[in-house]
Amino acid sequence: MATELYDLTVPAFIRGLNALSALLDKGAAFAAEKGIDPATLTGAQLIADMKPLTAQVQFACDTAKGTVTRLGELEPVAMADTEQTFAELQARIAKTIALLEAVPRERIDGREDADVVLKVPGADIPFTGRSHVLTFSLPNFYFHLTMAYALLRQAGVPIGKMDFLGGV
């Protein structure tokens, strides 16, 4: 039996977002324990031309919700990208997980060979459903999760590989 496209996306995104939420909880607790302004962590960057932690969380959420709405031919869900605090980032993650949980399996499965177009400023990037998931969505999602983990870890938050993996 082949793995269905739904199984490659929705559960993976939910698991990753739950792990991200737990990482943020640890970041907020670390800031409180050490007397660090939480904005120091949420605004952390690896290098000046790279987006901060807030954007990494936003991009991870956007990738998950964008993937399922494109695959399922659902109405896009806009989020304002205004989150600055741990609580606001957690709310965005929760909203994204709720959206993912509401997507019916039958809207995703069977769309492996469907045309999917990613619209970016100045270009439309064509994919099949399968190539969109495997060559863009999943790598992009895990990139932003990894960056969020790295930013918190670099700041000294006591997290490890099992935290990233969601406590397998």
Automatic annotation (TrEMBL):
Pfam families xrefs: DUF1993 (PF09351)
Top-level taxon in the UniProt lineage: Bacteria
SUPFAM superfamilies on file: DinB/YfiT-like putative metalloenzymes (SSF109854)
PANTHER family for this protein: BLL2446 PROTEIN (PTHR36922), DUF1993 DOMAIN-CONTAINING PROTEIN (PTHR36922:SF1)
Name the UniProt record assigns to this protein: DUF1993 domain-containing protein
Upper classification of the organism: Bacteria, Pseudomonadati, Pseudomonadota, Alphaproteobacteria, Sphingomonadales
